[in-house]
Design brief:
With about 250 residues, this protein is mostly helical. Helices cover about 60% and strands about 0% of the residues. It has eleven helices and two strands, in the order H-H-H-H-H-H-H-H-H-H-E-E-H. A two-stranded antiparallel sheet has the order 1-2. Helix 1 runs antiparallel to helix 7, helix 3 packs across helix 5 and helix 5 packs across helix 7.
Length: about 250
Amino acid sequence: MLVDMRHWFQCYAFDVIGLITYAKRLGFLDRGDDIRGVISALEEHLGYATLVGIFPSLHRYLFPLKNYLAGAKGAGRAYVLSFTNERIREAQVTPKPVAEESAVAMEDFLTKFLAKHAADPDVFTSFHVLAGGTSNMVAGSDTTAISLSAVLYYLLKHPACLQKLRDEIDDLTAKGGLSKSPTFKESQQLPYLQAVIKEALRMHPATGLPLERVVPEGGATISGRFFPEGVSQRDDLVPYEKRLTSQS
């Protein structure tokens, strides 16, 4: 039986982001489905953002047209803005129950945003509340799912690394260093796990379009390798030897 773990990681990420942003899971894991098309809306937005990032002059013309064709809810980021507005109205209309004294209180982002807005609405406006919630949804969900997928992919591709990680976890568990639901602090006691996460992020960064850096005048030597001036990260798609040959 084949299981699309990428999809389930996406569902997990959205529920986690929903929990820390709106203080409630949105139900993606319960149904294993794209609730109200938010995932597809974000994927569509990221594809659009990639293109207008390269051709920014087209944005002012394409954006209103795209949302007009999508209907009342809008498309991409506009859809997520509408979705976030609904969560804000829910938070304002339905008060949250008071947590028991024994319970560990976890204040969600939306509660913090609304409190800051109430304290100084001129400085932290209603737009900031909306933008903060939307940014969490757009930036937090996809990157989390991509990172988890990359970690699992490379571990499965390298069984020896997977076994080493399992051994480290089993060893710390046997010593009583891991609880049933490991905390962030406990995970810091697993150096190989930290290395696995960082290496997966290096091999497959969650953000596909990082800001490019250009080698300054005079060139630069990085890790024993010389890069001529004017070379950018985009140039690295071309083998280094071929670049030198073409320049000579």
